[in-house]
Structures are given as structure tokens and as C-alpha cells.
Amino acid sequence: MGLVVQKFGGSSVADAERVRRVAGIIADTYCEGNNVVVVLSAQGDTTDDLIEKAKELNPAPSKREMDMLLSTGEQISIALCAMSLEKMGLPVVSLTGWQAGITTSSDFGSARIRRIKTSRIQNELDKKNIVIVAGFQGITRTGEITTLGRGGSDTSAVALAAALNADVCQIYTDVEGVFTCDPRKVPGARKLEEITYDEMLELASMGAKVLHNRSVEMAKKYGVNLEVLSSFVRKPGTIVKEVTKVEGTKISGIAVDDDVARITVVGVKDEPGVAFKIFRVMAKEKINVDLIIQSLGKNNEQDISFTISKDDLDKAVNALGEYEKSLHFDHISTDTDVAKVSIVGAGIMSASGIAATMFEALYNAKINILMISTSEIKVSVLIPAKDADLAVKAIHDKFFE
Amino acid sequence: MGLVVQKFGGSSVADAERVRRVAGIIADTYCEGNNVVVVLSAQGDTTDDLIEKAKELNPAPSKREMDMLLSTGEQISIALCAMSLEKMGLPVVSLTGWQAGITTSSDFGSARIRRIKTSRIQNELDKKNIVIVAGFQGITRTGEITTLGRGGSDTSAVALAAALNADVCQIYTDVEGVFTCDPRKVPGARKLEEITYDEMLELASMGAKVLHNRSVEMAKKYGVNLEVLSSFVRKPGTIVKEVTKVEGTKISGIAVDDDVARITVVGVKDEPGVAFKIFRVMAKEKINVDLIIQSLGKNNEQDISFTISKDDLDKAVNALGEYEKSLHFDHISTDTDVAKVSIVGAGIMSASGIAATMFEALYNAKINILMISTSEIKVSVLIPAKDADLAVKAIHDKFFE
Lengths: 401, 401
Hints:
Two copies of one chain form a homodimer.
Chain A: E1 3-8, H1 16-31, E2 35-40, H2 46-57, H3 63-87, E3 92-95, E4 102-104, E5 113-116, H4 119-126, E6 130-134, E7 137-139, E8 145-147, H5 152-163, E9 168-173, E10 194-196, H6 197-205, H7 213-222, E11 226-230, E12 238-241, E13 253-257, E14 261-269, H8 274-284, E15 289-294, E16 301-308, H9 313-322, H10 324-327, E17 331-335, E18 338-344, H11 354-364, E19 371-374, E20 378-384, H12 388-400
Parallel strand pairs in A: 1-2, 1-9, 2-6, 3-6, 9-11, 10-12
Antiparallel strand pairs in A: 4-5, 7-8, 11-12, 13-18, 14-16, 14-17, 15-16, 18-20, 19-20
């Protein structure tokens, strides 16, 4: 008996049959005696279809009108899901973002939730209604419809769970939870019962596309218990919270990110301020830099290597070219045939030997390490892209078998 | 230079090409120096598609959730149209029903407009923005989304024109205006320059499906000048207003309605109150009765004939059957192979001979008249359905050739 917030993504409500299945999950939760608030995304390809319609008329529409258009996708989902629950004879009401009191900043297309006025939802819960809220959207103080950008429905769900002080926020998706690594690639991958917010953040930012970072950050900030589980299989998922049970192994997951390009700026002067100058150029171009290695200098020269998203490569090279004179480098080399493999685990650094075990696994598999980066809870290595799958399997076997 | 409200129906915005054409009309009106407020319906089959999606999940969804669902159709239209105008470099903003301040009753699915708070629209017009409003929808005082039911976008447009004190409310549709009769059936049909509200009301209620009655009634009540014109052909349409120029001919149109069934209650007692009892039964069943004829009684018995919509026939016959005893009739006969042909013109009854001329035309065409009904501005006859086209042609030739 409590208050449960449940979020279902676009693939979970893609067609009538799936909406019915989702309604079944909601109904069970409600009939167990819980208050239920549901957050839905747009059905399957709806958003893409709407974007296509827009582009036919205007390749660069204003973000305001784009939000006006795209917010209809979630509105369709909530009405259909409510109808499905009505069919079961359950009391239900659907609410758009603005009806649910979700106030946002006015950054159309990537708005931030500012405040949730919960009175309407609370009122409906008091009447014992199931409340279905349109995710991904809100309203500005001046009455404009906004959308929250990528992963927005997860954020809506977590924000509602925080505002309503919910007992748990369940994120239903098409995977069964958070795995030690990609189960499609490593047959021995196993589902984690629990994981901390920080581990989840590292995994999410490294391409384990289960939960969007914004929503995990918000869950951490407000202490919202998250559960990631499947809308297709009825079994427990993975709980994301502040502190987890101590498990036998120190690492909770292995992630691969192949959207990585490496840039090496060769032959820069070995003097203070060089790194600062290079990364100021990247910041100006709004390019996120990930791993950084500065080689030891010799002959008063050194090399600086760093990784960025593949999409940003051309922009980065052009920007560096413009500053060739003031940066005084010899030339730039780039490499896109690389992948980043990371192990994540709370307190990884306090347990000696974890990094060494990872490197040993790679050595045994004859994989060359190009770059290394470490943090409190992760160790990342850059390796040749062709070796990525082998690397994950080798590391997984070493830690989990 | 003035304030123009323009309404475009679903077929006028059915695809990208048509949206572009509509945007062109709006742009021209704006560039001539007018303030422009546009009301749009949902694109083509959108509403039907949404209804189908709903029925897949629930054959009888609540009207509230249906309105939540259907109101997305117009929201998509307004965003797309705004994007098309943005592409032309014009200043534009789209507004949902609630953003436009359209407050309605809480009769979901057939809400009535109660009030329009014009401040937001006025504010946008002051900024020289073109304002695109979602038709067919509004919001209740408690913040629920409603739809206005059939013909709702016409009503939205007229209500906005009244609230904003617009100079004209242009209803763009797929016909070029109001014609003397159906141009697909009578090649000589001609477009009227002007017509009065009352004539338009009679024509609309008789199946000349150009404007919905609710919108004409509202236009009459608030003195809104309407213009009916085509979104496909750029030429003047038909003006609907209180008083029109006197034209050569006394009648303005001929309409056919083939959704008619005749019921004759045979052998009722020739005594006071019989008609009252029969039509009380119809009223109880919410059946609209149109033409009524009470035959002259003989042998203390008489027949009462009346017409209703074909859809209501079974319901009417069953209801009369239930009251067979108290009504004391002999039997009921019905006929669905009938059509109603009407001529409409302001002051038709004050011009002697108009009805006679109509009957003469039918006599010359050897068409049998089953029932006759007259009002201030129209004469209707019920004839065999097979003769309907011939009747219209004969009457049209008589009056307009």
C-alpha cells in the first residue's frame, strides 16, 4: 500500500495490444491497494512521424511550434491508455503536462522542470482515480507548451515521484533491468538486483541506454527510489538507490561506447597553458571532451590526446585548424576506429587491484590499450574498435565467472 | 485594413501541399495589411483515425478521454500551418483552444462556447503576429479539454470573430460559395453573391452542407459578416449577412434532403389531443420531426403523416407501437423512398405566386407531391426519391433560366 509512479516508454505503448498490456500492469498495481500515477511517452514512431511532417513544410521550424506539434504524441498515448483502463471498469483520468501542473523553463525543445503544482493530481488520487500523465512536456509560466528533450518522460516520472513523495518510481522499458554488460553480446551477462545512483550515472553516460542521466541525477538529488523493469516480462527489475547491499563482486557493470573519436594534437610546446587553450577552443564550440592524455614532454614538445563524440570530429578539427598559429602545434591526427570500455562500481578505487584485474584481462586477450582514465567509481580504457566485443567478454569473464 | 478571421476545414489542410496553399492565402491577407486570426480543423482523416484507435481499445470510451484524444488533431494542424508561415518569414504563433481563452461548458463531445478571453490573442495581434487557433476545442472552468462537436471549427471561428469584433469571418471550404442548388447535379446552378442568415439557416438544415447551423445562428446573433469561399480557387465567395441586396429573383436556393422517412399513423380518432400525444412520444425519444400533415377526418377517423430522419425510423415505429393502445390507431405505414425538395428565399411568402410557380414546375415534370410545408422563407415538398434530381432541375429552370 503506497504511492507508485510508473513510467512506460514509447515501445511499451506502440500499439493497441501493448497499451492493453500496460493497462494490465497498472490495473494490478492499483488493485493491490496502491495509489498509481502513470507517465507515458508517445506511441512508437509517433514522434518521428510528426517530425517528418514538420520537415516537409519547414526544414527549420521554430522550437516553440515543434513543441506544440510533438506534445500531441503523449496526449494521444494518455487518452488511449485511460480508455483501456476504463474498459476494465477502473476509475481513471488522463492529464496533459499543463493539467498535471508541470511548470518548466521556456527553453523550448529542452525545457527544465521548475516546479510541480501537485494539487490536481492529489485531488484525483484522493478520489481514488488512477492518474495518467503525459510525459516529456510541461508549460511555462506564460502558458506556453514545452517539451523536455531526450529522455524527457523519465525526467517527468522522477520529478512527479519526488513532488508526490512516492514510494517508488518504476521505469518500464524493453529490457528486464540493468545488466553487468550488454546481454546481447555477452551470454553470461547477469541482471543486477540493485545499483547506486552514481554507478547508474556512469553506466548511462557510457551507452548503457536504460535510463537517461537527467532522470538519474534528479532521482539522486531527491532520493527517489527507482526501479528499472520490463513491460513485457513480469519479474522484478533493478533497484537504483543511494546505498546498495554489498555484493560479492566490487564492480556492477561493464559498458561499451563506440561513439568515440580520438584527436591527437601533435607537437605542442611543452609550456603552461597549452591544455587550457586547446580545451577552451572545444568549450567555445560546445564540444564535450571525455578522456584526456597529455604525453610526457621531450625536446620541449609534447602531444595531447582526447576523445569526443564522432559527430563532433569535423567541427573540432576545423576549430583547432583556425587556432593553429596561436596554439603552435605541428599537426593533428585523428582516429575513429576506437571504442571506450569501462567498468563501473561504487568504491572501485578504494578496492585495490580492480583496475589491475581489468588490465590483466585485456592483456590475456592481447588487446592494446590506447588510453586510460579513472574516477572514484569507474575505470575506462580506449581500445581499437574491432576488439570491443572481445574486451567486454574477457573483462566480464574475469570479474563475474 | 482590418481584422480578418479565416477558417479552413480538414480537407483544406489534408496534406503538406494543401497546408502550403492555405499558408499562401493567410500570407496574402496579412501582407495586404490585415490582422489575421486563423482557425483550423484537424487534417483530413486524422479525427477518423484517432476514433478508430480509440475503438480498438474501448468501444465506448468516456467522452472526456475522447476529447483529450481528438483535440490533438487540431493541435497538429495549427503547429504545421504555423511552421509553413515561418518558412515564408512571417511572424506567427499557434494557440490551442485553451491558450486562445476559449471557455466552454463541460458537455464533453458537444461543448458550448461560454466565453472567450481575448487578451492573449489581442496581445499577439498587437505584436503583429498572425494567430493560428485550434478550432473545435476549448477548456472548461476547471481546466478540462473539451470539443465542440460537429461543425465545431466553424463555431470557433464565428465566436472568435464576434469576440474580437472582426470585420469579416471567412469560412474556406472545398466549394466556391453558396449555390442556387447543387452544382454537381444542376449544370445551370449559380453562385450567390449574398444570402441572409435566415436563408442560410434553412439551406444548411436542408442538407446544403456548406456551413453548420450553430455557426450561422451565432453569426446572426452577434452580427458577424460571414463569407463562404474556396481554399482551392481564388475568387470571391458568398457573403452571409442580415440584409442582402435585392436581386432579380425572389428565391436564393433550392435544396434536396434525401435523409427523410415518412411515417403515417393511419386511423387515429378525430378528436383533440391526438397530434399532441403522438408528438409527445417523439419528443420523449428525442426524435426531430420535420414536415407534418394531418388529413381531413372522415368517419370520425383521420391519418397523421410526418417526416423524420431515416436513422430514427425504427426507434419511432417501436415507440408508437408501445403506445398503440392509448393512441387508438389502426396501423402505421412507413416510406423511406422519399426526398424533400425546398426553395428558400427571404420574404418568399410575401411574394405571391412563388409556391404556385414551384408546384407548376413539378406538375410539368409529372412529379407527384406527397406533402407540402411552408414557412416565411421556404416552401418544402415531399416527393418520391427517384424524382428528386428531376425536380431540382425543373424548379431551377423555372426560377433561374
